[in-house]
Amino acid sequence: IAGNPxxxxxxxxxxxxxxxxxxxxxxxxxxxxxxxxxxxTLYVSAQSQYESVTKDAVFRASVELPKGAAFVLLSEGxxxxxxxxxxxxxxxxxxxxxxxxxxxxxxxxxEFLASRGRCVVTLDLYGRGxxxxxxxxxxxxxxxxxxxxxxDHLEIEKATLLGLSNGGRVVSQLVGFAPERVEQxxxxxxxxxxxxxxxxxxxxxxxEIDALVARYPELPxxxxxxxxxxxxxxxxxxxxxxLLVHKGFARALISTRKNHDxxxxxxxxxxxxxxxxxxxxxxxxxxxxxxxxxxxxxxARLLPKRxxxxxxxxxxxxxxxxxxxxxxxxxxxxxxx
Length: 337
Description:
The chain is about 40% helix and about 15% strand. The protein is of the alpha/beta class.
């Protein structure tokens, strides 16, 4: 065994990859055992369950709602949200998630703010999590309007907006629509400062959907790259796998990516610099998903007045990898105001 190069390679794998592989091997072992027992129906049909669940009334009734959670019908469909410390809540901290992982990605920060008595709101954007997957173009404008409509429903007049990754694009668009509703902006690992161009054809074909669904088996493990040290988040990929059963998820992701464009956001950011809305940017010091060096000069030019922090020992999700440091920043930024 010691002289076997394959075994030697396995022993040289990083602990993160080794952990992922071990879980996959256990799944294969379980599948083989189920087949031997004649009870493999659940496992054999696992991939056939992709995009099989429609988010209708039956689906919504099946969701076990945590404290403060509810559904509301907005202009483009039902939206799932959570709301804490609702009494006399004219101003709130609103947490906007990123590209594909829904609002549960903000759970540690939501619980932290709620425990400190802050009025805090989080939601699943259209096409993600428990919210509807409407047959529309998934644009920054769509998501920003969704957030604004939810604030109107909750009778929240002003908000501090925290945008994570792609959520940074959303909160920028929202301040472009309604700057009078925004108390301050906090960008966390925001992807909204990169130069991108809208696709020539923003439509989504069935062939494109099929191609992405064919990649679904590999997507959950890819989510672990958001962390500097994924070994601390053993079930993260498995939780993501649960999202892949929702019909319309692939279309939502493709449409969102095709509609990304930086030109309008650049105009919004320039206007933001001229406003009196406070802006904070927070980054993981080891982020390999949104690489700060790729747009640092542009960011310095657009928002020179911003307050900026780098969270040590963290990748793309600093609020999860180093919560104590991140939450200390929030206390300084939010509670002192």
